[in-house]
Amino acid sequence: MTWNAIVQIAIFAALVTLTVKPLGAYMTAVFEGERTPLSSLFAPIERLFYRAAGVDPKKEQHWTAYGLAMLAFSLVGLLLLYAILRLQAFLPLNPQHLPNVAPDLAFNTAISFVTNTNWQSYGGETTLSYFSQMVGLTMHNFVSAATGIALALALIRGFARRSARTVGNFWVDLTRATLYVLLPLAVVMALVLIWQGVPQNFSAYTSSTTLEGLKQIIAQGPVASQEAIKMLGTNGGGFFNANSAHPFENPNALTNLIELWSIFAISAALTYTFGKMVGNTRQGWAIFAVMGLLYLGGQFACTWAEHQPNPHLAALHIDQTPNALQAGGNMEGKEVRFGITNSTIWATATTDASNGSVNAMHDSFTPLGGLIPMLNMQLGEIIFGGVGSGLYGMLLFAIVAMFVAGLMVGRTPEYLGKKLEAREVKMAILAILVSPLAALVPAAIATVTPQGLAGLNNAGPHGFSEILYAFSSTAGNNGSAFAGLTVNTVFYNLLLAVSMFLGRFFWIVPMLAVAGSLAEKKIVPPSEGTFPTTGPLFIGLLAGVVLIVGGLTFLPALALGPIAEHFAMLSGNLY
């Protein structure tokens, strides 16, 4: 790995870190109902929404009511998106006259965008109309992200409150997350992307003639508006099939940096919001430190792996040394305009942050380089994670970590002054076990059935990695694809949809149960025997628990895929 790569990683990490406090403090003010610089603009709109929906913003909900409201909202959104896709041919803004989406693909896509997964079994520019992209997908990019933020707030209030029966109002949290956080950031970012050359229009696709005299169709449309929220909301669903490797989604190095920053911005800042709302910002910085350490570890490992020369090419006496004339390392599947380092930063950041976008093809990474994005998702999408979902996922791991600490010292575990009893620990572990269940069981089914194997374009460990990556992605609600696997079939569309559904909602319900249980507890003042949760010992313990749980769960599967492929590559076997 070169010094240039280290500097690029450091610049990205610094930009994210500088965002944490100001954006986190702003979101604290928003969700605690304080006046903000945008209140004069959005407060009247917010009140109008409440009146139209019959919502009393001052009336809070028990965790069960909060969860039912979230589930009902998600169900209505799923049915609406499914209807839009199935009726696409009859709806406006369809200059290419694209047909209705097939039932199984429409179902898969509806589940995907409602769960903030944004898995795409289709090519956007050849399958979906402008209406479907805007009213269907872009709308869900906003509200699914806002739902994740709202759920994180419910758990934060569980820690912050004492002897309370409520965890907030889902409709208020959803509205404020959309109006005050996601919408302003998305508008500004969309304008910057338009300035840099990302299309935003309703024109029909352009037909051009190439230098060879062939006809080529150049797709365009309302791209910038979707691109902005797909990054900020950690969604990842691209307007084009090539996603952020397409020059109309990601034209240059500046847009690449802006989009990378936007992937982590809100998720990282929510750690500071957590600290502010529980009354101890050091707690938030400790969670941020755990996320940052895990991110940097994976980032340097992935970048190092991709900078290594390919032994098969070395055997042919091909010079792979980085110099002024060549990048060196593994450039297969990567955009020349971004290079190896920016490709690995993107791959690591998006799989850490539950954002399924790509600016390089992960299927072309080296075995160890491809292992890191896969492992990031398998750890539970908690290294920053999706907006909101990453924070509440990490806090559940913190509960487990404090339970382990309590066992080691023989004391009742507690976190942020709340005694952690059997109910909270059981619910936390139940939620954490959902991801491996939703990933490994469907992956096993796909590897032993003719319908699953029929989609493979590669044999051996690499083919298994493609299947494992797909279900790790959907179970973690990430949405990125290893590629090399044909998934637009009835078998994969339905099985992947089940994985996405389990990975989202079967994690949320136990988490809300934890939030409700914690809110009812009193806050116990710290004593001499209280385990400190803001220092290096806690940071190391929490990071260790995350790695051990992920390693013990997925190591056997990884050994059959990327690890086996790595040793096969070193031995010269092409299997």
Description:
The protein has helices at residues 3-31, 39-53, 63-86, 103-114, 124-127, 130-160, 170-195, 223-232, 253-277, 281-306, 311-314, 339-352, 367-378, 389-409, 422-448, 450-453, 460-475, 490-520, 536-571, and strands at 206-209, 215-218, 414-415, 418-419. The chain is mainly α and 575 residues long. It has a domain at 20-278. The strands form two sheets. A two-stranded antiparallel ribbon has the order 1-2. Strands 3-4 form a two-stranded antiparallel sheet. The longest helix is centred in the last third of the chain and has 36 residues, at 536-571. The model has no long low-confidence stretch (mean pLDDT 92).
List the helices and strands and how they pair.
Elements (H helix, E strand, L loop, with lengths): L2 H29 L7 H15 L9 H24 L16 H12 L9 H4 L2 H31 L9 H26 L10 E4 L5 E4 L4 H10 L20 H25 L3 H26 L4 H4 L24 H14 L14 H12 L10 H21 L4 E2 L2 E2 L2 H27 L1 H4 L6 H16 L14 H31 L15 H36 L4
Antiparallel strand pairs: 1-2, 3-4
Helix pairs in contact: 1-9, 1-10, 2-7, 3-4, 3-6, 3-18, 4-18, 6-7, 6-8, 6-14, 6-18, 7-8, 9-10, 9-12, 10-12, 10-13, 10-19, 12-13, 13-17, 13-19, 14-15, 14-19, 15-17, 15-18, 17-18, 17-19
